[in-house]
Amino acid sequence: MPGKLKVKIVAGRHLPVMDRASDLTDAFVEVKFGNTTFKTDVYNKSLNPQWNSEWFKFEVDDEDLQDEPLQITVLDHDTYSANDAIGKVYIDIDPLLYSEAATVISGWFPIYDTIHGIRGEINVVVKVDLFNDLNRFRQSSCGVKFFCTTSIPKCYQAVIIHGFVEELVVNEDPEYQWIDRIRTPRASNEARQRLISLMSGELQRKIGLKVLEMRGNAVVGYLQCFDLEGESGLVVRAIGTACTLDKLSSTAAFLPACNSPSKEMKEIPFNEDPNPNTHSSGPSTPLKNQTYSFSPSKSYSRQSSSSDTDLSLTPKTGMGSGSAGKEGGPFKALLRQQTQSALEQREFPFFTLTAFPPGFLVHVGGVVSARSVKLLDRIHNPDEPETRDAWWAEIRQEIKSHAKALGCHAVVGYSESTSICEEVCILSASGTAAVLNPRFLQDGTVEGCLEPRLSWQPGFFSIGSEKGEVDFFPQSQDSSSLLGQEENLPAGCGFCHIPYDELNMPFPAHLTYCYSCRKQKVPDVLFTTIDLPTDATVIGKGCLIQARLCRLKKKAQAEANATAISNLLPFMEYEVHTQLMNKLKLKGMNALFGLRIQITVGENMLMGLASATGVYLTALPMPGGIQIAGKTPNDGSYEQHISHMQKKINDTIAKNKELYEINPPEIPEEIIGSPIPEPRQRSRLLRSQSESSDEVIELDLSHGKKDAFVLEIDDTDAMEDVHSLLTDVPPPSGFYSCNTEIMPGINNWTSEIQMFTSVRVSRLSNINLTNQTLNKNFNDLCENLLKSLYFKLRSMIPCCLCHVNFTVSLPEDELIQVTVTAVAITFDKHQAVQTTKTHVEKSLQRASTDNEELLQFPLELCTDSLASHPFSPAKEHLESASSNSGIPAAQRATSIDYSSFADRCNSWIELIKLKAQTIRRGSIKTTVSVEKASPLTEGHFRQRSAPACANSTVGVVKMTPLSFIPGAKITKYLGIINMFFIRETTSLREEGGVSGFLHAFIAEVFAMVRAHVAALGGNAVVSYIMKQCVFMENPNKNQAQCLINVSGDAVIFVRESELEIISAQQPVASCQPACSGGEIAT
Amino acid sequence: MTNELDIFVGNTTLIDEDVYRLWLDGYSVNDAVGLRVRSGILEQTGATAGVLQSDTMDHYRTFHMLERLLHTPPKLLHQLVFQIPPSRQALLIERYYAFDEAFVREVLGKKLSKGTKKDLDDISTKTGVTLKSCRRQFDNFKRVFKVVEEMRGSLAGNIQQHFLLSDRLARDYAAVVFFANNRFETGKKKLQYLTFGDLAFCAELMIQNWTPGAVDSQVDDMDVDLDKEFLQDLKELKVLVADKDLLDLHKSLVCTALRGKLSVFPEMEANFKNLSRGLVNIASKLTHTKDVRDLFVDLVEKFIEPCRSDRWPLNDVRLFLNQYSASVHSLDGFRHQALWDRYMVTLRSCLLRMYHD
């Protein structure tokens, strides 16, 4: 009996009128936990009842404490008929179960009804007394902290990052039970909400147990999802990364964690060949491997050498999956020996993190993804969710082998998703293959304590033993020497270096020596699912890049449908990838971060939406242009058309380079050395898809031997491609957007943030849809949505939309639903925080910040003299004009040196003529924007002081999908917020139609999240995510229903300005600034 | 391809002041979009008409949802659904309760009933204020009236407390409530020249001096009704014009004091008895509800128009009224000095404010 839950119902306010006669309400409250229910007295005739109840005490197991939500029901007492329910509040008491989080939940909660929405508020106080229980067979995992944040939470340090944890539970969906036919929609919705709440609690507890098993104390990057499989049931699944976290108490505690890894690595005893040049040597035979023995406990599993037996046996174009059988017997002993490292003992060396402690990420291979089409069948026994487990195990296995093919032993930025339509389900998983620094993955004690997994996952375990050979990672023979070498390198390029062997590449790729260190090989482009590493050096700013694609599909049933989808998938992947690559080239960038490809299945179509943030990595080569080639060279007008297109593309590239300030220093070719003669190709994406079987179709995404960046427009399809490339409009000046945590190139955030969700549902009017019109419609939908966002948030300029998260669903035949959640953050363009190391970058950056406002003027003044560049010159002028005007003389010289384009010099005189005017205009613009901003900031200050002045107003709770709050320091994590709501209406028109209905519902969801955070004592939610927004309508019946699932981390933050005051008084307490992430990115 | 659903929900509710103004002014979404296009916003921002339409719809939807809360502003402060910074909340409330001069002049002093509401069509046509906006303004008047009608304490204070309005706006509402409650006639043609400001000024003085609240701050309806006892007592003033000696004495006192100081002295001397009779008769008749309603008509007819026709400058009116009220203190036979002051101090200020073209 290890816990006592105490609940007190204080008061209610703004209750709805339940008695028409008196215009009042006789309210009372039922408090339920598990099977125990308490009631308050009836408070007669009031809309603002003051119950002030006694403490209701529940004595419960901690297992129940974790699983069950506290359920508070407000009712209207009726003497003659049944009492009417006003609404409910579900409170997740999990945050009270670990010592460092909240100690009490106390505050006003919106009373929620699934039919009427929020109906007043109730003031509740909840406390938990936990008794220590040392029973080692316990089923609870109280004390394990959960974080949605996909990096190490700001006020903690990672002692060990243990690795992947996953779990899923299944149940029947109450909506599809027979009883649903006779009960009210309200009862059915509440049953569903309660069940999902229970299942989430159970899931979290089970994951917690796994973490304890691994000797961890926390789950970071916890992502829980629901699969509404309809008839076949309800699946709640979660993945996360188990860690051992230490709370940071002071700066002293933080710094070692930050800086030590590289130093400690030196001490790792490698008995290795010290020759640093193994790298460029020819392929070593597998036998050579045997000469290298590894210290099992401290092995460093970097894998760039050619000794990778698996790879050397894998055909170039192969993806290396399931290659276990090919391994020769003689190697097995050796390989087993090698599997001793901490990572390799894991079934799945996956990490859901997207940002890492410095030094953690050694190399990045590229994106690995796997999809599988499954037919759903009824889950017969909810207690043994074997089928679903097996499905995911299969996919994970595939991901793992892809990573291996890329010479990587781990997958970071890992995520899983599903798309369900009727009885077909696409399971997807993706991540970034990487080589990690083992320092964080293990300590001396870890080895022995990795006990076999518990029996609830027999499937996984058997896979491990059957394919034991697969679960290893060949060791690099030169890791120590490499390490030594890398320590001398300038920081920020190491992760770009290829982890695979250049002569046995898993796919054809174009390699060059790293543009930063000139010592290691780098690919020409890099795609990843993670955030930009903090130490990476980039040039200019990043931007959101999206690939959008629709494919029609015949309506079909069951098997036939699944086959049709499986057949379409590879083409979709290929095209999405091509689009991404083309758009990246068009932006003049060479790397994608935060890549997320979503494939959605509908009745008669498939949709693909890929979002990522493009950047220019200094370490990678400058991207080549895009060439257009026609197939019918004899046609004169056609030629002309082609050359026109080509010019447009070239102009766009030049314009984008200016826009995103990509001015890489030009490097003489001889320094770089001749490129390695490999066929260029456009793929870094490893993919595969399989259907119900173990058969894996390998797909080579490269374009054979021809130059990858030639676009052939020999048919209308290709024309469409080119057009769609050019129709993407850049955001208006003063706006930037990215889907990663922070925007590369912006580091001077100011404190104003605005998180928002925008939903659009579009009906395809055309009955005779073709792929082209569909693509165009979808493209327009997304582009218009972005335009609307820019317009709506124009008062925040200059600002950046961060963590832009698009979700597509196909709720009905002709409906496309796009949901976007993002946060707009203002930044100060005048005070760039200069943390860059090189002189060049400094001046460039300075120039860029200074000319931002100037770029807002599409100058028609100077275009005539430069016919060769009809689009770009104006901005080029402006840029150099501003760098000229805004920078002190010494820096001016450098900036001119490095931005030396020929035509700029030619128009130098015009520039000087222009200068005066531009500056004047620019300054006017600036003052205007300051004026605009001031009422907001003023309001903000007032609002911030609000919580201090007692109960008069509602405290402000910030919400953000990011893991930090600009200009503030997170001082405490209060626990995870994971909420699921259903809202239904039978009076859709009266509630303002579908838009009115959903608008109100989302506003209510935000309100409920804020109320829970406030009750925990917090003032913000970080890493907020709307995981699901399922909307269904039936306008003919005047009905609609929506399900929303959100999660995030409740935190307390303190403004840095306030912190300074505190620390001035109290010099001891001060830690790493919360927004360090923002400062490092340049 | 059409957007069936198109929403934007911010954690902090976005309020566009321009769109709010258009919404309050009662424009439909399409009209508002048209007006916004004409304001040149598309050129400024590079947005498309579609974007503007969607944005306008979104704001209108938000305002529609907020409207319910704006009816009881304290709820707006305590609700949890819309996170709005306090400064913005104040702006929302203040603008929502603001009213048009043209509209308020039409309904001032009218009964805030369904009957008047039916006339809103005509008022809308006459004033050029959209019907929707007229309805909002009328409903605001009615709502405020209902809440504070039977409340103790200062009228403006109550309004401020229950509707969280600015000091200025609360006092204007106090005037509206006071006029509606006493049904003062303000619509007559000869009263058209009076602005709402003039009438609100008068109302404020009357509330200060002529209501039960002026003598006792613990009475019900203290600020909305005129003090019955006071009105009854005003009959006593009749003696000032009924008693010929008193009237003559009064006249001579005033004339002696003002001789050489007024540019219109002869006219004043000639008209003194008429003016005095007018002012005193107004006072003595205030026991009848009908005459209370006609107070402003009477003031204009009996005092302002005669003076205006003789082209009295404002300063002469001021000198006259000062002397006229002060001289009564020297009339030995007159015993109701306090009553006279309570009546005349207010009346003098009102008349001076109303004396313009």
UniProtKB/TrEMBL annotation, chain B:
One Pfam entry name: FIBP
GO biological process per UniProt: platelet aggregation
Database matches in InterPro entries: FIBP
Molecular function terms, GO-annotated: fibroblast growth factor binding
GO cellular component, one term: nucleus
Name of the protein: Acidic fibroblast growth factor intracellular-binding protein
Organism the protein comes from: Phascolarctos cinereus (Koala)
Gene name per UniProt: FIBP
